[in-house]
Amino acid sequence: MVHFNKINKAKALKDGPKLTADFFRQGDGGAEPVREWLKSLHQAEKSEIGKDILAVQFGWPLGLPLVDHVDGDIWEVRTKLVNRIARVLFVVNGSTMVLLHGFIKKSQKTPKPDLDLAKERLKRLKGLK
Which domains does the chain have, with CATH numbers? Predict the structure, then answer.
């Protein structure tokens, strides 16, 4: 697991986060699908994913093993949980990390439906759909 404590913590805290994190909002009610997904997880899993997102906020830009480029403007936060693997797909919009989609990974490659959903949300975020 790579967390906030793996980057230069003292410098990061002094300088503050390089990115703020925000949830993608959809629909008239402003539903936040990644927040809802996170709420469905066990507390320990939420905590691990949150630590990794925090590490990205303070350490951006980062690479493997914590962050990987997926496609176009889409990146992923890679979190190893006790018995499974979680991914949070995001885009950097200015100085904001917008969390587009979160899921539990069940195969080696990012499933096409999960990537397509993130791409669709990115289009909506950009006002293209």
Answer: 4-124 (3.30.2310.20)
